[in-house]
TrEMBL record:
Record protein name field: General secretion pathway protein G
Organism: Geopseudomonas sagittaria
Stored SUPFAM superfamilies: Pili subunits (SSF54523)
Protein keywords: Methylation
InterPro entries listed in its UniProt record: Bac_GSPG_pilin, N_methyl_site, Pilin-like
A Pfam family the protein falls into: N_methyl
PROSITE patterns (alphabetical): PROKAR_NTER_METHYL
GO BP field: protein secretion by the type II secretion system
Listed Acidic residues bias regions: 127-136
Gene3D superfamilies tied to this protein: Glycoprotein, Type 4 Pilin
Length: 157
């Protein structure tokens, strides 16, 4: 009685490898999309946090809680002011109002840049279609040249 050798034939191994390669080729683009979608979600959250802090600063300035000159727009002079805080005029002890714990990072920006350098800044005097920096920060935008999964440039978010 001859015993037959157990194992895989060359054809079985080749077919298995072809199936694995096919599955990997399908999974790679899907993985890239999932990673990109995650970064886009981070960008949305960061923009929301920054814009919310800018708006809170403006509300506090308009309410007279922080010092503001008569010719000022009431928007913060920089993003760093939102983290460093400003003197609260209601506080006798010289307390401060803080609007952010830290400046969030743009997930599509150069990771070697400081978080404050990641963002494009638009002043109150600047038109929306051609944003420029100025004496205050009215809005922020991503400097990334990329296009979102929704077909809108990250700069326009």
């Amino acid at each position: 009685m001859h015993r037959r050798a157990r194992g895989f034939s060359l054809i079985e191994v080749v077919i298995t490898m072809a199936i694995i390669a096919l599955l990997a080729s399908i999974a790679a683009p899907l993985t890239e999309t999932v990673v990109r979608r995650g970064k886009e979600q981070e960008l949305k959250i960061a923009l929301y946090q920054l814009r919310d802090a800018i708006d809170a600063y403006k509300v506090a300035a308009d309410a007279g809680h922080i010092e503001k000159s008569a010719d000022s727009s009431g928007y913060p002079p920089s993003l760093e002011v939102l983290v460093d805080g400003v003197r609260d005029l209601r506080s006798v002890e010289g307390g401060k109002l803080y609007f952010l714990r830290r400046i969030p990072r743009d997930p599509f920006a150069d990771p070697e840049l400081e978080p404050g350098e990641n963002w494009g800044l638009r002043s109150y005097e600047s038109p929306p279609d051609d944003p420029e920096e100025g004496e205050d920060v009215f809005d922020v935008y991503s400097r990334s040249e990329g296009m979102g999964l929704n077909g809108i440039s990250y700069r326009e978010w």
